[in-house]
Specification:
Blueprint (H helix, E strand, L loop, with lengths): L6 H9 L4 H19 L7 H13 L8 H8 L4 H14 L11 H8 L4 H14 L2 H15 L4 H17 L4 H10 L6 H17 L1 H7 L3 H13 L7 E2 L2 E2 L1 H15 L3 H17 L5 H16 L4 H14 L5 H14 L4 H5 L2 H6 L6 H13 L6 H14 L2 H14 L8 H11 L4 H14 L4 H20 L12 H13 L5 H14 L7 H10 L6 H16 L5 H11 L6 H11 L28 H6 L17 E11 L2 E9 L5 E9 L24 E7 L1
Helix pairs in contact: 1-2, 2-3, 3-5, 4-5, 5-7, 6-7, 7-9, 8-9, 8-10, 9-11, 10-11, 11-12, 11-14, 13-14, 13-15, 14-16, 15-16, 15-17, 16-17, 16-18, 17-18, 18-21, 21-23, 22-23, 24-26, 25-26, 26-27, 26-28, 27-28, 28-29, 28-30, 29-30
């Protein structure tokens, strides 16, 4: 192929290439010829060569070596070369290229050219690839052209001003007066550019938005003229007079009327007129109606007008165009929260869209159908949704099943709560993760009563894990004692909490009294409040918990155990307290204010005191005599067993048989070394087996 071939011939040769390699060879040869001709000082075919290079660039091949040629052609006085140069600048240059700065002066000169077509080339190039620096330098020239008498130039200047405002928002004030004056133009192109410019100014500056709210009557008059005008061949599109300008005006009205009563009232009649007089059988009419609906829903419109807008979207659902059905359901989904009843009128049509073969329409129909489920229609809607679930595509099954499940809300069966608690109890490795997640769910939302009950139970049972703030499965969050008590108190005081939920919260609060150290008095205060609650079940719990605080506070072993562990000065056997409580449980309703006495200690020769717990329990109705409690038999000595002896530390177990089934075990720890020992901690692990019915006492001493 000769280097001097015309553009059409080069295109023909490239298209006739059979393989990509052959095409690449043709382009490489042509680019080499173009590069050689660019080096010539006097080349009359520069614009021709640059045009061929632009075609090569469109095919995706590198053409950066033509950037400087674009600068030379822009500076040329000939229009034919200047046109190709500006086209090349828009395609090959951008604001990141240093070469773009070289054309700033040429653009400024061409903006003052006597030919409107040369001015148009400069305006289009600046609007396409002008950098922030170029925009600052040339903004006064654009403002001057906005006031020109030529409509063709004013239209181009308005669109160029839009680009400048986007690049340098602070220059918007420069164009505000000229933009407002353009609304009085009769030329539709100028009006379109003016509306776009005003929209950009209002979106970026609240003060400018307030200024242009005064232009709402002018925009309403322009829009009425478009709606009521007769047939105009110049602007008619499928029977709609300039739908592009109508859509732009409606978008601007939506911005001006948002959160403003006066502006909204001024456009209500116009919106009603557009909604009733626009033909929706054509795509152009549907576009105008769709923008009208969006404007009605975004401003402070009348209730009747909003119903009319929803009905328009309902008609869109019957349209044969799937795109129109899709945008209709998308819009309905946005307004179903605020206008639920109006959308419910089209529930049947929406459900029918579940059978649409298009996957996107089907997905939107599913989302909207789930949003329409209410207490009134849940039976009929569940029937339709379950039918859809049985035949829907695999990619929608998970969403459909999840939506059907969530539609039930907090209405779950009674056995769900204890079943979930049982599952949590058995998963010991997940206790920390579970209590953290449920605590976060509790402080976020307490409307799901069943979930709140489980959360309260976990906080009461595993509150120490929550306060510790250590969890490997999730990001650790430090939770204070006050935070936990605040959450439980919120549940107790909420009007959404059922009596059963309050019972869970009160019990959890009481459980925390054995797991925290600094807020026991606050817990006592919370519990005492509900001692006079109108709910009998809650009142009974509070009274019983208050009794534990008053008469059995010495049994609060977990607190003292925690303190001992922190001091590292005493031995802690968690199961000893549990064994001692076996005797104390019978005295819950007894009349003695003295704490119950444990069994005899090692080395005592006198029998232990007789317990009156059984007598007090049998004497609840009064007048009943109880048999005397037999004296505790003397301890029978048993062999001594050395269980640990190392580094001067000796641990010995002394077993003494108290009865046929009772046993007292004494652990003696001694230090035979020559130095004192500190921070000595002894821990005992007890297997998870059922305890015998009779008590086993374990006494600890250390030397």
């Amino acid at each position: 192929m000769s280097p001097s071939v015309r553009l059409q011939e080069m295109i023909r040769v490239i298209r006739s290439a059979r393989t990509q390699g052959e095409e690449r060879g043709v382009i490489q040869r042509e680019c080499a010829a173009i590069r050689a001709q660019f080096r010539q000082a006097d080349n009359g075919g520069r614009s021709h060569n640059l045009a061929k290079l632009l075609y090569v660039h469109m095919l995706g091949y590198p053409a950066h070596f033509g950037q400087m040629e674009c600068v030379r052609l822009i500076a040329s006085p000939r229009y034919s070369e200047k046109r190709v140069g500006y086209l090349g600048a828009m395609m090959l240059l951008d604001e990141k290229q240093d070469a773009s700065l070289l054309i700033t002066n040429s653009i400024k000169n061409d903006l003052s050219h006597s030919s409107q077509y040369v001015q148009s080339l400069a305006l289009c190039t600046l609007a396409c690839m002008g950098s922030a620096e170029m925009c600052r330098d040339l903004a006064p020239e654009i403002d001057r052209l906005l006031r020109a008498s030529n409509s063709y130039i004013k239209k181009k200047a308005a669109l160029c001003a839009v680009h400048i405002v986007r690049k340098v928002p602070e220059l918007g004030e420069l164009f505000t007066p000229a933009a407002r004056s353009l609304l009085s133009e009769k030329n539709h192109g100028v009006l379109h550019g003016a509306v776009v410019l005003i929209t950009e100014l209002c979106e970026r500056n609240p003060e400018t938005l307030e200024q242009f709210r005064k232009t709402v009557p002018d925009l309403v008059q322009i829009m009425k003229g478009l709606v009521t005008t007769g047939y105009s061949p110049e602007h008619n599109v499928a029977g709609i007079s300039d739908p592009f300008l109508q859509v732009r005006i409606l978008r601007l009205l939506r911005i001006l009327g948002r959160n403003n009563d006066a502006a909204s009232d001024a456009m209500n009649d116009l919106l009603a007129q557009v909604a009733t007089n626009t033909d929706s059988s054509k795509t152009a009419g549907s576009a105008v109606l769709y923008e009208t609906v969006l404007t009605v829903m975004d401003i402070k419109s009348e209730s009747g007008l909003r119903v009319l807008a929803v009905n328009i979207l309902g008609r869109f659902l019957l349209n044969n165009d799937r795109n129109i059905r899709y945008i209709s359901m998308t819009s309905l989904q946005k307004i179903v929260v605020t206008d639920h009843n109006a959308v419910q009128r089209h529930r049947g049509t929406i459900v029918d869209c579940l059978k649409d073969p298009d996957a996107s329409v089907k997905r939107r129909a599913l989302e909207l159908s789930l949003a329409l489920v209410s207490a009134v229609n849940i039976r009929s809607m569940m029937k339709e949704l379950l039918l859809f679930l049985s035949s829907c595509p695999p990619e929608l099954k998970a969403q459909a099943a999840c939506g059907i499940f969530n539609a039930a809300g907090g209405d779950v069966r009674d056995e769900t709560v204890p079943n979930l608690i049982q599952l949590i109890t058995t998963a010991s490795d997940l206790h920390c993760y579970t209590v953290h997640k449920l605590y976060r769910a509790l402080i976020t939302d307490i409307s799901q009563q069943s979930l709140v009950q489980v959360a309260c139970w976990c906080i009461g049972e595993y509150g120490d894990l929550l306060l510790r703030g250590e969890c490997d499965e999730i990001e650790p969050v430090q939770v204070s004692e006050d935070d936990v008590l605040d959450a439980l108190e919120t549940v107790l005081q909420s009007h959404m909490s059922s009596p059963a939920t309050r019972g869970f919260a009160l019990t959890a609060t009481m459980k925390l009294s054995t797991r925290i150290t600094d807020n026991v008095d606050r817990i006592r205060s919370i519990v005492s409040i509900y001692g006079s609650c109108i709910d009998v079940e809650l009142q009974q719990r509070a009274v019983e918990y208050n009794a534990l605080f008053k008469k059995y506070d010495h049994m609060r072993y977990a607190t003292s155990c925690t303190e001992n562990l922190n001091k590292k000065s005493s031995f802690c056997f968690p199961f000893v307290c549990g064994l001692l409580k076996v005797c104390d449980l019978l005295d819950l309703l007894g009349g003695s204010e003295e704490p119950p006495q444990p069994g005899p200690i090692l080395g005592s020769t006198a029998p232990g005191p007789a317990s009156t717990a059984g007598g007090d329990l049998l004497d609840l109705l009064g007048g009943l005599e109880t048999p005397e409690t037999p004296e505790t038999p003397a301890l029978t000595p048993a062999p001594t067993l050395t269980v640990y002896e190392k580094n001067g530390v000796t641990l010995k177990l002394h077993c003494h048989k108290q009865s046929e089934t009772g046993l007292t075990v004494t652990l003696t720890a001694s230090n035979s070394s020559d130095w004192d020992m500190s921070s000595f901690t002894l821990q005992a692990a007890v297997p998870k087996v059922r305890l015998p019915p009779n008590p086993v006492y374990m006494l600890i001493s250390h030397k």
